[in-house]
Design a protein that fits this description.
Structural class: alpha+beta
Largest sheet: 5 strands, antiparallel
Distance between the termini: 63 Å
CATH architecture of the largest domain: Alpha-Beta Complex
CATH topology of the largest domain: Polyamine Oxidase, Chain A, domain 2
Strand content: 15-25%
Shape: elongated
Strand order of the largest sheet: 2-3-4-1-5
CATH superfamily of the largest domain: Protoporphyrinogen oxidase, mitochondrial, domain 2
Number of helices: 6
Order of helices and strands: HEEEHEHEHHH
Number of strands: 5
Length: 205
């Protein structure tokens, strides 16, 4: 970790935020093959169910521009997370069949997709475990002690896109404020010489 060379305390606290691995399985179906109502945004699976997917999003219902026409339906399933990370490392064919089996049991979906895409996010899901607020407070304290260093992303105060945009804007503002405090590099010229140089004009011949 690069930051360890600058501030070991900050590096230790950053490393103390666990990161889980997950995957999304995106499935496209012909609407005519779907015999169930998808008039909802999706579903979340309780941990107590001990299923192999964490949730499902009816993407084409939530965002109707995700499909080229109403003739198609898009469903996205979430695999992995802190409790089932090993499932992410199956090959694509096994993961596809596992997800379809889960959807069949959970929502009664029996159709085969006309297209699918699988994306894996290795160590890309920060976990807000016990002590997270203290770790973030320690990180922020060390950021204050190291002007010019900023931390952004979903590992600190929210994992949503909106949260990440918010901390990104904050960090950008802080960086700009910091740049304004920096002195211009010395050139050996006095301010009077610089002023004279800007006023000098070429006399007409």
């Amino acid at each position: 970790m690069i930051i360890e060379e600058v501030d070991k305390t900050m590096a230790d606290n950053l490393a103390g935020i666990p990161q889980a691995t997950s995957a999304t399985v995106n499935l496209a179906f012909k609407r005519s093959d779907i015999n169930k109502s998808l008039e909802a945004f999706g579903f979340i699976v309780p941990i107590s169910e001990k299923r192999k997917i964490k949730a499902g999003t009816y993407s084409s219902t939530k965002w109707n521009y995700r499909t080229p026409s109403d003739d198609y339906v898009l469903i996205r399933a979430f695999v992995g997370g802190a409790r089932n990370q090993e499932l992410v490392f199956q090959d694509d064919d096994k993961m596809l069949e596992m997800v379809l089996a889960e959807l069949r049991d959970i929502i009664g979906l029996t159709a085969r997709p006309v297209m699918h895409k699988i994306y894996r996010w290795i160590k890309g899901m920060p976990q807000y475990t016990v002590g997270h607020l203290e770790r973030v407070a320690n990180i922020e304290a060390r950021v204050q002690a190291n002007p010019g260093i900023y931390v952004v992303g979903g590992s600190y105060k929210g994992v949503g896109v909106g949260d990440c945009i918010n901390v990104g804007f904050q960090a950008a503002g802080q960086a700009l404020d910091h740049v304004k405090t920096l002195k211009e590099p010395e050139t050996g010229e006095t301010k009077d010489k610089k002023k004279d140089k800007t006023k000098t004009k070429k006399e007409p011949a």
